[in-house]
Specification:
Strand order of the largest sheet: 3-2-1-4-7-6-8-5
Low-confidence stretches: none
CATH superfamily: Spore Coat Polysaccharide Biosynthesis Protein SpsA, Chain A
CATH class: Alpha Beta
Mean pLDDT: 89
Shape: globular
CATH topology: Spore Coat Polysaccharide Biosynthesis Protein SpsA, Chain A
Structural class: alpha/beta
Radius of gyration: 16 Å
Strand content: 15-25%
Order of helices and strands: EHEHEHEEHEHEHHEHH
Helix content: 40-55%
Number of helices: 9
CATH architecture: Alpha-Beta Complex
Number of domains: 1
Distance between the termini: 32 Å
Number of strands: 8
Amino acid sequence: MLSIIIPTLNEEKYLPKLLESIKSQDYKDYEIIVSDGNSKDETQKIAKNYNCKLVISEKRSPAHQRNQGAMQAKGDSLLFLDADTLLPEKFLSKAMNTFKTKNLNVAGFYLQFALDKFSYKLISALLNMFFFLAQYIKPLSIGAAILVEKSYHQKIKGFDENILIGEDHDYSQRIARKGKFRIINEKIYYAPRRFEKKGKFKTFSEWIYCGFYTLFKGPIKKEIVKYEFGEH
């Protein structure tokens, strides 16, 4: 079984779209766990309406929410998804098939922004190139979609909750030291809400800066850029 884990904080706008994209998949051997940071909007109600397993915690961080969800997972594979992602048709079946045939222990994915604009196509192309090259040096995979064997998640004791930014990169790198990592050649659709709010150039620059920082200096445990879970 595949356990799909979604960390949330006030995601009533995006969560239903993601859940619909999961429900429409041809792959059906999964459970959905919504790990919520005690949202004040309709997030928890939406999760219940879609028959998701709901985990609630007062502590709020993507790493903590993912770890809490994984503790409740019944599947032997875990798929961490951000609430503002969407899955293309047949994504799960293709991803799981590639994951197994290539004997992977952890995997990331390429991204495509949900807005059909040239600027976002360019940004996603540059980011995907960065992810492709980094996988042969130090894996960089964004938390919007990470597929992992549950046993390897447990081996490294999950996400490091002391990391402020880039806990997803650190997570993949630590597992890659014990197993096999690759970027699977499937794309997720990703909402550019941070780019829209903070500006395309600024957000893209911050992503690249954090990526290089993680590659060459290690985990980010100080505030080098402003980030707050749930602020968008």
